[in-house]
Specification:
Layout lengths: L1 E6 L7 H15 L4 E6 L16 E4 L12 H26 L3 E4 L16 E6 L5 H8 L4 H18 L5 E4 L2 H7 L6 E3 L18 E5 L8 H14 L4 E5 L5 H10 L6 E4 L5 H6 L3 E4 L8 H8 L4 E4 L5 H4 L6 E4 L4 H13 L1 H14 L5 H17 L1
Parallel strand pairs: 1-2, 1-4, 2-3, 4-5, 5-6, 6-7, 8-9, 8-11, 9-10, 11-12, 12-13
Helix pairs in contact: 3-4, 6-11
Length: about 375
């Protein structure tokens, strides 16, 4: 079977890039599928995550990122021109490859991929949550005119783009329920675990970890003031933040203002993040919105109990509240602090919840999730 994945790039770390790389490797190695990954702009760089040599990489050299600096209406016009070029190049490639399945990760090609009549079934793999662009506009405090544009984009996605696909796949049951009244062919297939093996559990160190891009979505500007209050009750604990992004300077300034330089350390993103999870005893997540929350399953696989706000979407699906972590109502900072301090002070409870986390998260192993994808591929081909 021939499978094609389309996504913007593979040279930067990120949840989508990580998951697609793992799934592509699985399909190529375990199923012996012919797998191609087509990127819009790779900039001549190697993939951040390891790919098997038999996976074909094709880069279209279409720089969408350069459009972000342009004024709104100029950007819209230039993007349409670039998408026209994108569609033409991608069409030629798909007609040459003749894939059975072509998968969009809901980025640049999403709006026109179903219009390419190369014979392949088209899947839209949605790594976000419904109305994520509205949540993004609010979180990043975009200007009013930009917010309006994002609201229109949400309408277009729901009413024009998504219905054209043979299958629409979301990551959580929560998100599926949100979409089901609007989109009839919506299917929930969770993300797979990112580590091949589960490390030995060691939650005895007085260190907590938070992982993600340093931007408004991930809510580190929420976490730092929360940690200030936690620090007063558990001063021996350290918070390690791993990530990179546009808010790094602002977050470091906030840490300095709150005199937490010795208690909060921002580290660069790690290619071997499993080693960093192993050095910590607890994961904290204060995202404003997610599509899944990959750091939750990664930490749980390493035997860490997790504490997260119940943002859309992911935490409600992943966390068994009170058993392998705590899913906190959005905005309830007092409960977040209370549950974190509880686990910091109760070693036995923290260790037990860590064991539960490592056991429960196995429902997302490749052996359980990838057959769902394979069954979907076979079903679509038979239609």
């Amino acid at each position: 079977m021939k499978i094609v994945y389309c996504l913007p790039q593979l040279y930067k770390p990120g949840g989508i890039e990580r998951i697609i790389s793992i799934k592509a490797n699985y399909l190529a190695e375990t199923c012996h599928y012919d797998v191609t990954i087509i990127t819009a702009i790779q900039k001549g760089k190697a993939p951040y995550y390891k790919l098997l040599p038999q996976i074909r990489l094709i880069d279209l050299n279409l720089d969408y990122d350069s459009l972000l600096k342009l004024p709104l209406f100029t950007r819209i016009y230039k993007k349409r021109l670039l998408q026209k070029k994108h569609k033409e190049i991608l069409s030629n490639i798909l007609y040459q490859i003749k894939p059975d399945i072509t998968i969009s990760t809901f980025t640049h090609e999403a709006s026109f991929l179903p219009d390419i009549k190369d014979g392949s079934k088209k899947i839209l793999e949605f790594h976000f949550c419904r109305k994520h662009k509205q949540l993004m506009a609010k979180a990043f405090k975009f200007p009013l005119i930009t917010r309006f544009a994002y609201y229109l984009k949400c309408w277009q996605e729901e009413n024009v783009i998504i219905p054209k696909y043979d299958q629409f796949v979301v990551l959580t049951e929560e998100d599926k329920l949100s979409w089901s009244s609007k989109i009839k062919n919506v299917l929930n297939i969770p993300n797979i675990l990112t580590f091949r093996t589960s490390p030995t559990i060691n939650t005895t160190r007085n260190e907590a970890i938070a992982v993600g891009r340093l931007d408004a979505q991930k809510g580190f500007d929420i976490l730092i003031p929360i940690w200030e209050k936690i620090h007063k009750k558990c001063p021996e604990w350290i918070l390690n933040i791993y990530g990179q992004g546009e808010d790094e300077t602002k977050l470091k300034k906030l840490i300095a203002e709150k005199e937490l330089k010795d208690s909060i350390i921002i580290h660069q993103a790690s290619k071997n993040i499993i080693e960093e999870y192993e050095k910590n005893s607890l994961l904290l997540m204060t995202s404003r919105y997610e599509g899944w929350g990959l750091v939750l399953t990664e930490a749980m696989q390493c035997g860490l109990p997790v504490i997260a706000f119940a943002c859309k979407c992911g935490p409600r699906d992943i966390i068994t509240n009170g058993e392998d972590g705590f899913c906190i109502d959005e905005g309830d900072e007092n409960d977040f602090i209370s549950k974190t301090v509880l686990l910091m002070k109760d070693d036995n409870k923290r260790i037990k919840m860590g064991y539960n986390a490592q056991k429960n998260v196995q429902r997302y192993s490749a052996d359980k999730i990838m057959p769902l994808w394979i069954n979907l591929f076979n079903k679509l081909i038979k239609q």
